[in-house]
Amino acid sequence: MITSIYSIVDMAMVGQYQGPEGTAALAVVAPIWNIIYSLGLMMGIGGFCII
């Protein structure tokens, strides 16, 4: 939930200060960032459960 709110606020700030090009760049990078973040979270939780 917190990550979703952060993403929305980040998109709004980038759109306000960088314009459409910044928002488009963020829209391209956001799914890649979400995959990396999710994999790290899964590995962190899984690694903790094994110990």
Kindly state the percentage of residues in helix.
over 70%
By DSSP, the count of extended strands is: 0
- Give unreliable regions as ranges: none
Question: Structural class of the helix and strand makeup?
Answer: mainly alpha
The N- to C-terminal Cα distance equals 27 Å
Please, what is the oligomeric state? single chain
Strand content: under 5%
Mean pLDDT: 85
Q: What's a quick, concise take on this entry?
A:
The chain has 51 residues and is mostly helical. It is built from two helices and no strands.
General description of the model:
The protein is mostly helical. Helices cover 94% and strands 0% of the residues. α1 packs antiparallel against α2.
List the keywords:
51 residues; 0% strand; mainly alpha
